[in-house]
Amino acid sequence: MRIGAFDFNPGFWPSIVTLALLPFLAGLGIWQLERASWKQGLVDQHAESARQPPLLLQSLLARDEPLQYRQVTVRGRYDLEHQLLLDNRTFKGHAGYHVLTPLLLGDRENAVLVNRGWVPVGKYRSRLPELPGPAGELMVYASIKLPPEKLFRLDAVEEVHEGWPQVVQQMKLSELEQRLGYSLLPVILLLDPVDEYGFVREWKAVYGVTPGKHRAYALQWFMLALVLLMIYIGVNSKRISDET
Question: Between vectors from CA 155 to CA 149 and to CA 161, what angle results, nearest 5°?
């Protein structure tokens, strides 16, 4: 096949390799763009919810409205005798826990778990950190964070220490309700960063790879696909000699 001053004569194996790799590289780029779009939606939703005034938690749960990232207020008393340490949480490269403290509601038969932030593991994992908090009733300002299934539901509970607080790798609310002796609302509250009774808190809509990084990764995959195509054309093309 003549293309201008070049004769394009593709070989069998270069064509097979290119036909296999080119869609694969382009597909990875498209997948990264889809991930970027999904995470950008989370960021936009977080920003929109942050602009809305806080509502009473019980009132919001009674409505048919999106819960993710909504700011809420709730009155109750922390159950400081039964706190959980969610393991394998990192902050700026350091290992630690997220402190989940049940907030007993007015009837004392229901509670909601409040994530009061991150604490470091410490030198010895057998020595758990101190988890101080207020003893009396208070108003908590927080935002709701839900997993993709819109339930704070993980598959298993693994205890590292006996008694309280308990270190857990994963959680299942039904099992925790049996241990605590009261019902838990099906949401987790992220304590407001300015609350004085919390720990390290830098709540983000997206952790790990940001939308911008996903777009950068997509560009890299598309560039690799383009380079592969250019190499394929180059190795299978020869300039046509002007000699007769």
Answer: 130
